[in-house]
Amino acid sequence: MKNILVTGTAGFIGFHVTIKLLKDGYRVIGIDNLNYYYDVHLKKARLKQLETYDVFEFHQVSIANRDNISQIFTDHEFNYVVHLAAQAGVRHSLENPYAYVDSNLVGFVNILEGCRHNKIEHLVYASSSSVYGKNRKIPFSTNDNVDHPVSLYAATKKANELMAHTYSHLYGIPTTGLRFFTVYGPWGRPDMAYFLFTKAILEDKPIKVFNYGRMKRDFTYIDDIVEGIVRVINQIPQPLSSSVPYKIYNIGNNQPVELGQFIEVLEDCIGKKAIKEFLPMQPGDVPLTYADVDDLIKDVGFHPHTSLETGLKKFVSWYKNYYHC
Question: Which pTM was predicted?
Fold first, then answer.
């Protein structure tokens, strides 16, 4: 049985990835600091689901704590690391920049050092579509220049990719970065728009529709994301043009949807119309995300198949059941 470290295991994506890996027969050691960026009760409810598996082991620890992370690596012989822990959120990075330095920069170095000193076969880590900034060429390709981020969050994710490349070059650690595109679904993050919209609509409160609803997002259902991640784990990169075992993929739905249309589908799923408050674009936000996923299709057979209608219906059903409404 192979051992996998999953960081951020109580988070949205980390939770779903961990369940999939456990069902696939892996032993998973999960870590999470259970911070208060959003409802800790939701994180603990996810953990409760995971702890029903005998081959799951959890440690509450911050990735920014060098000694604790080093000890976790020493105590376990990991085959793979799936690094999903991070301080998320574009707008929060405008208000609390040091949280992003601690988690996304210091924390990432600690994970890289753990991989370096413990002969990890493959490090798979979370990047973000935010690295594309206001890129006007669509769809977004991993061959595009991404040197103009528009938020500190995006800058830290670009930095992660550079740091991973450096460790791949210096120490031969195979690393794969995944640029996620607007992931949604059951057990999601309460700070995300679809979650906030659902809560507000059910409570007869107005929703804030930024850029007057004219933004487009490559909304990607969680099950499709998880399938892509799990396939990538065993797709260990080989030295190519840069002579290092390093790879970056986009992982998205490849079908951007305008925010106004997204809200209409959500209204249909809830069975209730939203009270809309139209507002201009927020600082740090971008008008469009659109993933070119050809490389992921070619290398691992990634094919997102969940329609927006199906995905939002499943989310709304989970939301009503979880919050008893």
Answer: 0.95
